[in-house]
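Quick illustration for those who missed Monday's session on complexes.
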Amino acid sequence: MTLTQGLPVSTAARPAVELIGVKKHFTGRSRRAPKRVALDGFDLTVRPGEFLCLLGPSGCGKSTLLNMLAGFTQPDRGQVLTDGEPVTGPGPDRGVLFQTPMLFPWLTTLDNVLYGPRARHELTAETRRRAVELLETVGLADAHDAFPHELSGGMRHRAAFARVLVNRPRLLLMDEPFGALDAITRVAMQRFLLHLWQREQITIVFVTHDVEEAALLGDRVCVMSGSPGRARAVIEVDLPRPRSIEDTETLEFVQLKRRIREALEDDH
Ligand SMILES: Nc1ncnc2c1ncn2[C@@H]1O[C@H](COP(=O)(O)OP(=O)(O)OP(=O)(O)O)[C@@H](O)[C@H]1O
Ligand SMILES: [Mg+2]
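Prediction with magnesium ion bound:
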């Protein structure tokens, strides 16, 4: 068998995500309400280990796409594949993080992190060790026994991260996860996310409204157009890593932001 970096060629070459000709419409509650086409002919491929940012105007279908990848909803037409397999429902191989961290208020931080493995009857000593180690990584080593209402907004986000990562997802789906955070906490969370992404070597699809955030984090930025949502342009971010907030002041970064903004504003 031919090997590429120790992996069979077929596995190494397989995209992490394939969205092919995806169409999705929603109908209003009343029969007279017009049919709303959220996405039509949406195509995108994401490479294994890539950090892909999805950027587009409000209502262009970003969350709808993420929900399809998470397996919460199905396309009307087209294909939604992860690791070459059609998505048929939610699974622990795909971790989802929303703008509001989803934690059970009646569970401690550690029990929130252990919730998934416990629910799947997969709670082993190894999983416990990983949970404790992850809480340390996210800076919550002293908050194992705290309940969500005792954590700050940033801490809750980090706890939600640990809760998702304990499942060792291959794909992380993030829907404007830092949108509600103050500027300082957001920068800290971006730095933290890049560190985790490099350490865990996962594929990330990250939805944001923020051009600067997309350029700072992404390997590529998929710019969407709205009504119905389509991939308008995919822009390579050829800035060296590791990147930090200081890089946003360089000429290369400012030029990149301009290219992304022009793609967003392009009406043709
Ligand atoms: N469950 C639903 N029922 C009816 N319409 C929906 C539903 N979910 C989404 N839509 C519609 O589909 C379109 C795309 O919505 P979506 O939430 O995916 O947009 P978005 O790009 O995530 O927007 P935002 O940036 O504001 O979060 C919108 O017109 C929205 O009203
Ligand atoms: Mg959305």
